[in-house]
Specification:
- The protein is an alpha/beta fold.
- The protein folds into two domains: 65 residues, Hypothetical PUA domain-like, domain 1 (Ribosomal Protein L25, Chain P), CATH 2.40.240.20; 157 residues, SPOUT methyltransferase, trefoil knot domain (Alpha/beta knot, 3-Layer(aba) Sandwich), CATH 3.40.1280.
- 27% of the residues lie in helices and 25% in strands.
- It is built from six helices and twelve strands.
- The strands form two sheets. Strands 6, 7, 8, 9, 10, 11 and 12 form a seven-stranded parallel beta sheet that branches.
- The longest helix has 22 residues.
Length: 234
């Protein structure tokens, strides 16, 4: 059954005009009145809805039932990422969402080539949030991960506070391979851009309670390394 994110207050028994992007997608699929779709609003669970009317631009549907279905990872994971360039960050957001990430914080770091002013940072955050919504629709997730507005390393570091309830790791090539422990508590993973974190940034992270960790003997791409971590907690 086709699944769609719907940024509306969903409730069983309601009849609603679906958002423009959802309506266009349903029209492209050539669905008809009487067909059933699955809707989710990112707040938990999903809804079965019946298409009532197909307009030129809007699809009208009735919300029939709510299923309290959750497909979240058992581990709350927060990826803090020195942004890779071009479409690699798009790809990372999509795949991290499929793998169950809870939150992504994009950073502008010393070796990163991507620099964003305040206006562009907000636009990129909205773009990545839309990618996460689509990835949730595809993968079956009913809760959308938080994508933060990109920020500078120093701003993020100054705002970081101690947290005794979570594990903190910084991915590093300066240490030996480290076995991952079995987790049942939140985890924050810090990873650098194509050039990695600078020595100063890595030292600052360690001073904030991050443990350096190396995943294996090979050097993974910037967008691959955090995904390798997330795959441990499917």
């Amino acid at each position: 059954m086709p699944r769609f994110f719907c940024a509306l207050p969903l409730q069983t028994g309601l009849s609603v005009d679906l958002p423009d992007d959802t309506s266009r997608h349903i029209q492209v699929l050539r669905m008809q009145p009487g067909d059933t779709v699955t809707l989710f609003d990112g707040l938990g669970g999903e809804y079965s809805a019946c298409i009532l009317h197909m307009g030129r631009q809007t699809v009208h549907a009735r919300i029939d039932t709510h299923l309290a279905t959750e497909r979240e990872s058992a581990v709350h994971s927060h990826v803090v990422m020195g942004m890779p360039a071009n479409e690699r960050m798009d790809w990372l957001v999509e795949k991290a969402t499929e793998l169950g990430v809870s939150r992504i914080t994009p950073l502008m770091t010393a070796h990163g080539v991507l620099r964003l002013n305040a206006e562009r940072a907000v636009k990129r955050q909205l773009h990545w949030q839309a990618i996460a919504q689509s990835a949730c629709a595809q993968s079956g997730r009913n809760r959308i991960p938080t994508i933060d507005v990109p920020m500078h390393w120093s701003v993020w570091l100054d705002a970081l506070r101690p947290d005794e309830t979570s594990h903190r790791w910084v991915l590093s090539l300066s240490v030996d391979q480290t076995p991952l422990p079995v987790l049942n508590s939140p985890v924050m993973v810090l990873s650098g851009p194509e050039g990695g974190l600078s020595r100063e940034e890595e030292a600052q992270a360690i001073a904030k309670g991050f443990q350096p960790l190396r995943l294996g003997s090979r050097v993974l791409r910037a967008e691959t390394a955090p995904l390798a971590m997330l795959s441990q907690w499917l």
